[in-house]
Design a protein that fits this description.
Elements: E1 3-7, E2 10-12, E3 18-25, E4 33-39, E5 46-52, E6 58-60, E7 68-72, E8 78-83, E9 92-100, E10 107-113, E11 117-121
């Protein structure tokens, strides 16, 4: 059974940094993607970054590329999202999800979600 638990959200001023962490269990398979999504009020949930487990393969949405970095530990038990140069438009609820499609980061029937963690960027 896949289980994901996010932590690390909070409030920060524009230009600041936060690091989110997702504790992952129950994900099996050699080539599996895990990702970070976010949802702002009135908007659809969107994929912003994902990683192919056991490799250095990553994907970033253009809205976060160059500012955010997704990483995982060797045993796939933790997936982190380092967020730098945060902007007010990054304010959202952030979710980790696994497994997801490695092609476009789309959802699978077996995709499971964490409970979400709020990130607020405001001066």
């Amino acid at each position: 059974q896949v289980r994901l638990v996010e932590s690390g959200g909070g409030s920060v001023q524009p230009g600041g940094s936060l690091r989110l962490s997702c504790a992952v269990s129950g994900v099996s398979g050699r080539s599996v993607c895990m990702g970070w999504f976010r949802q702002s009020p009135g908007k659809e949930r969107e994929v912003i970054a994902y990683v192919l487990t056991g490799s250095s393969g990553t994907f970033y949405d253009k809205s976060v590329k160059g500012r955010f970095t997704v990483s995982q530990d060797n045993d796939r038990s933790t997936m982190d999202l380092q967020m730098n140069s945060l902007k007010p438009e990054d304010t959202a609820m952030y979710y980790c999800a696994a497994p997801i499609s490695c092609g476009m980061g789309t959802l699978l029937l077996e995709t499971r979600w964490g409970q979400g963690t709020q990130v607020t960027v405001s001066s």
